[in-house]
Amino acid sequence: MIPNIGVLRYWLLLIACSSSSVVSYTINSTASSSSSQSTGKQNEVRKFPNQSTPPLDVLKAQLLALQEGNLNNAYHLFSRARRLQIDDSVRTDMRESARPERIESYLGSFLSKTCPGIINHDDHRIVTSLTDPDPTPGRIPTMICRVAINGGLRHFTFSLTRQSTFDGGDPRDNDGYERCWFVWSIKPDDDGKSKRKKQSIKPEKPLLERKIPVPA
Fold this sequence. Notes:
Low-confidence stretches: 5-26, 28-45, 194-214
Radius of gyration: 25 Å
Distance between the termini: 124 Å
Number of strands: 4
Helix content: 25-40%
Largest sheet: 4 strands, antiparallel
Structural class: alpha+beta
Number of helices: 7
Order of helices and strands: HHHHHHEEEEH
């Protein structure tokens, strides 16, 4: 029996379309929040994180991106407001889009200065995580995590926030990531370790307070 060529072409086209529409959960590391691509096209590619992604999974992805030195992925895992701040910092003209290479250069310089050692670190461990058990109504949900890197030689505090829903204001807020967790800030946090070291060392008394033995 000779197959119907039209039906055969239909099924081949259907298979090709199905394979091209498979959802990718990899982070789109090349698009910025101010990209000229349509929101629908961005959401089709970037599916991490989503509304059901726990904040600790977002933190783990951010730590992996920083460990690998993948600053494009690290940029995408920052919150919407933080990405807009970065975009505005790298533009030479407010009418242009933020270029990915400028974003990567800026973010690398900023993190190297404010959080030395965080980029290309050897290992990391989430020490503590804390959320507000009784959040204030109307406030953005927040999680604070303390992270140790390089075997505990350095510590950092990561603040994660859950983005609000689009309220019809700035169209850049309609990015398809409403109610998703992202990293808001990273700050060095070695105070606790340094304080313990200081307490373990007894300071010497000033010279005038020492009892100097008088020779007989």
